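Bench notes, afternoon.
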Amino acid sequence: MCAEAAARALLFVISAACAGCGADSADLSPLRLKHGPPIGQLQAEQLRSLSMECENYPTHGSMRGRYEAAYCAEAMAAWADAPLQMVPVQKSPQDGPL
């Protein structure tokens, strides 16, 4: 009787441990979704990184990856509206006139 109870307990533990096996990580909601720092306080590079990370995940309910979906939407909209970052290009003598 004791061996049977131990076997059932072991079976229960194994089945409980395997319950999450094979699940998509996007389906496993974290305890607290990230929604900070405020979008207006992010530097251009931080905003770009956040926007690119958010784009990696489809919207799943109120989350997008480990972030709140609304926070990601705000970040992506802010990055789309951000002014282009201009990078000066040095002209080499071999290039000739433009």
